[in-house]
Amino acid sequence: MQTVSSSHLWPSADGVWHQLHLAPEASQAGAAGLFDAAIVVEQGRIVWVGAYADLPAPYQQEIRHNAQGALVTPGWVDCHTHLVYGGQRANEFAMRLAGASYEEVSRAGGGIVSSVKATRAASEEELFDAAVPRLQALLAEGVCAIEIKSGYGLSLEHERKQLRVARRLGQALGVTVRTTFLGAHALPPEYAGRSDDYIRLVCDDMMPALAAEGLVDAVDVFCETIGFTLAQTEHVFQAAQALGLPVKLHAEQLSDMGGSALAARYGALSCDHIEHLSAQGIAAMRQAGTVAVLLPGAYFTLRDDHLPPIAALRAAGVPMAVSTDHNPGTSPTLSLLLMLNMACTLFRLTVPEALAGVTRHAAQALGLQATHGSIAVGCPANFVLWPLSDVSELAYWLGQRPSCSVVRQGRLAVDGMALHQRAT
Questions:
Q1: What is the largest CA-CA distance in the chain?
Q2: How far apart are CA 362 and CA 301, in angstroms?
Q3: CA 261 to CA 292: how far, in whole Å?
Q4: Which residues contact residue 128 at a Cβ distance below 8 angstroms, ignoring those fewer than 6 apart?
Q5: In the 3-class helix/strand/coil scheme, how is the chain assigned residue by residue?
């Protein structure tokens, strides 16, 4: 079993953090862009943000944390991951290089179903032990909140196992974890040719049971030609709505099925992938306030050449999030920094758009915008200090991992800049 250091042993971040360069748009308090900003943390929450010269008298005697000019961003949010699974699928990577398409790999017994077999064979402890180093890699780069989907169990027993591990990871590593039930991810082998029967199982048995156990924060569906139909997707959405659960959707990755417009009618938190998103889908998402989640890792790994409609999303004012989509088949990445670069280079996002994509828009995609994604008074203290002079460097460096320091859930969880030694 993995040995994980308890988060309560990390140093408290309470006090005045000063000599900060607050990244543009990092704060809602009007202090963004300041080169001598201060953040005051009390009992793990942000109670004041502003210019250090304006620090109110009540905080003058607080302990000081000297950041020595570090660039500060909100804690990052990885809003779409499949972090808990058994096995790996490097062989499929080789198959695609040899010319097989995503659909051909799936129909040959690879794809999601191969991960289902490995996940079902693994114990809860084995899944936890495998997931810990994956999550630690993301946390080391400043992730302070993360979504973890199920979808590799495809039965009540094994979906429960995945979601239980996701909950444990949040508790063990001191990070906000939002769980998403993705029972409608693929058709399990035992339901071959009976997709409607399986959707009834998802809606009538699996989802109510898992929700009653407090394991589900949202519900997702893979709506695609090799996944589930619009009618089946709507059945899942109706069941989620009856349980008071918000919905999300894997939409328009391989074709335009109109899933985004359907999801928007149900007030979806997000539609994800969306390479083939139509103008009608964009309009529906804008009206519903649904976030478009961009997943450049999958686009890159699958060698896709059909870009998401970035300009149209931008023009419509649809918020765009960026995420790793960490999964063993189509996006085996554990770096949100790399995704920031790819979102800019492959999808042509600007640096401010990309930064918003891993902070406030990613938080919105999880329904966490009131507590995450911004450095704001009243929010939990989740922010990252970078040894960089300009925010553009976060997207500019390719493959470099700066030795950042991370305040997560009110504690100094990562101290790559040795800031704890500088408290004065």
A1: 70
A2: 22
A3: 12
A4: 1, 2, 165, 168, 169
A5: CCCCCCHHHCCECCEEEEEEEECCCCECCCCCCCCCEEEEEECCEEEEEEEHHHCCHHHCCCCEEEEEEEEEEECEEECCCCCCCCCCCHHHHHHHHCCCCHHHHHHCCCCHHHHHHHHHHCCHHHHHHHHHHHHHHHHCCCEEEEEEECCCCCCHHHHHHHHHHHHHHHHHHCCEEEEEEEEECCCCHHHCCCHHHHHHHHHHHHHHHHHHCCCCCEEEEEECCCCECHHHHHHHHHHHHHCCCCEEEEECCCCCCCHHHHHHHCCCCEEEECCCCCHHHHHHHHHHCCEEEECHHHHHHCCCCCCCCHHHHHHHCCCEEECCCCECCCECCCCHHHHHHHHHHCCCCCHHHHHHHCCHHHHHHCCCCCCCCCECCCCECCEEEECCCCCCHHHHCCCCCCCCEEEECCEEEEECCCCHHHEC
Between residues 97 and 9, which one has the greater pLDDT? 97
Residue 423's pLDDT band (cuts 50, 70, 90): low
d(CA 283, CA 317): 10
Cα dihedral sign, 89-366-267-204: positive
Residues 208-263 have pLDDT tens digits of 999 999 999 999 999 999 899 999 999 999 999 999 999 999 999 999 999 999 99
109-119 burial, b at 16+ Cβ within 10 Å, e below that, comes to: ebbbbbbbebb
Per-residue pLDDT for 365 more than 70? yes
> Which is it for strands 76-78 and 15-22: parallel, antiparallel or unpaired?
unpaired
- Supply the angle between the helices 124-139 and 156-173 in degrees, to the nearest 10: 40
Rg of the chain's alpha carbons, rounded to an integer?
21
Written as six digits, the tokens of 88 are 């790996």
- 145 in Cβ contact with 75 (< 8 Å): yes
Cα–Cα distance list, 10 to 7, 16, 282, 298, 381 (Å):
6, 17, 44, 35, 14
Q: Does pLDDT of 109 surpass 80?
A: no
Question: Could you give the CA distance from residue 26 to residue 40 in angstroms, rounded to a whole number?
Answer: 15
Residue for token pair 């470099």: 400
Instruction: Quick: pLDDT tens for 325-339.
Output: 999 999 999 999 999
pLDDT score recorded for residue 28 = 60
